[in-house]
C-alpha cells in the first residue's frame, strides 16, 4: 500500500516542472504534498495516478512500478484531481453507478449506497450534479475516488473553494479515510496541513526542499509557525 517515489523529473518544453524528487508515503499516515502555486504539485499527482508519464525516475505504488503497470495501478488508487471532471448532466446516484460499473464492481447498488452514506450525500443523491453546490460536487468527486475501496488515495487540492462548514466536514472525512489507506494530499494551505497531515513533502520551483514528519518539522523550526516555515523554505 505504500508509495515510493525515486528521482522523478518532468519537463514541459524547456521548463522543468519537477526536478529529481524522491519521497515515500506510508499506510495509515496522511502525507501533505506542499508547495506554492506552480511548484509542480499537480504534475507529480498526475504522474503518481498514472495519467502522465515522467521523463525520468520511477514511482512504485503497492509494489508496482508505474511505467509498466499503469492500468493495474489505476485500479488500486483513488484520484481526485484539482478540477474534478464530473458529468454534470447525470444524477448523483446515476453517476456513481456509472463509475462503479467502469471498475467492474459487483453489487453496484450496495456500493453506491455505502459511498453516498460515507461522504454525506444522502440528501443530494437524487439531484443532478449540475444543481449541487461546490461543496457537494467535491463530495461527489471524493465518492467516485473511493467507491472501489482503493488502497491509495491521491487528492489534489480537495478542499479548494469550500466554505468553513464544508471544509471541516471534508477534512474529517479525509482523516477517517486515512486511518487504513495511504493518502497523499496536495495543498498550499497551511491550516489544511495542521488539521489533517502526519508527514510533509515540500517542493518549490520543481525541487524538493523538505521531507519530514510534521512533528519533526516543527521541532526543527521551533520558534516559527508552519506558515513562516513554508515561506522560508519556498522563498
Automatic annotation (TrEMBL):
GO molecular function, one term: ATP hydrolysis activity
Gene3D superfamilies in the cross-refs: P-loop containing nucleotide triphosphate hydrolases (3.40.50.300)
Keyword Coiled coil belongs to the record: no
Domain ABC transporter: 3-230
SMART domains given in the database record: AAA (SM00382)
PANTHER family per the UniProt record, alphabetical: ABC TRANSPORTER, ATP-BINDING PROTEIN
The family this protein is said to belong to: Belongs to the ABC transporter superfamily.
Protein name per UniProt: ABC-2 type transport system ATP-binding protein
Record organism: Pedobacter nutrimenti
Highest classification ranks of the organism: Bacteria, Pseudomonadati, Bacteroidota, Sphingobacteriia, Sphingobacteriales
Amino acid at each position: 500500500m505504500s508509495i515510493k517515489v525515486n528521482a522523478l523529473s518532468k519537463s514541459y518544453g524547456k521548463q522543468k516542472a519537477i526536478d529529481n524528487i524522491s519521497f515515500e508515503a506510508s499506510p495509515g499516515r496522511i502525507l501533505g504534498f506542499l508547495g506554492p502555486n506552480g511548484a509542480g504539485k499537480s504534475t507529480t499527482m498526475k504522474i503518481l495516478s498514472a495519467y502522465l508519464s515522467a521523463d525520468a525516475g520511477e514511482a512504485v505504488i503497492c509494489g508496482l512500478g508505474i511505467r509498466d503497470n499503469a492500468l493495474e495501478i489505476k485500479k488500486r488508487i483513488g484520484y481526485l484531481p484539482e478540477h474534478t471532471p464530473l458529468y454534470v448532466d447525470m444524477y448523483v446516484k446515476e453517476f456513481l453507478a456509472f463509475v462503479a460499473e467502469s471498475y467492474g464492481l459487483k453489487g453496484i447498488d450496495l456500493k453506491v449506497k455505502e459511498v453516498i452514506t460515507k461522504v454525506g450525500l444522502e440528501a443530494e443523491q437524487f439531484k443532478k450534479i449540475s444543481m449541487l453546490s461546490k461543496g457537494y460536487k467535491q463530495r461527489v468527486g471524493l465518492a467516485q475516488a473511493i467507491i472501489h475501496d482503493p488502497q491509495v488515495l491521491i487528492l489534489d487540492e480537495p478542499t479548494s473553494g469550500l466554505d468553513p462548514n464544508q471544509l471541516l466536514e471534508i477534512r474529517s472525512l479525509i482523516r477517517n479515510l486515512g486511518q487504513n489507506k495511504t493518502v497523499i494530499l496536495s495543498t498550499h494551505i497551511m491550516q489544511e496541513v495542521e488539521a489533517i497531515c502526519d508527514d510533509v513533502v515540500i517542493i518549490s520551483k520543481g525541487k524538493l526542499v523538505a521531507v519530514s514528519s510534521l512533528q519533526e518539522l516543527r521541532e526543527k523550526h521551533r520558534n516559527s509557525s508552519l506558515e513562516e516555515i513554508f515561506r522560508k523554505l519556498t522563498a
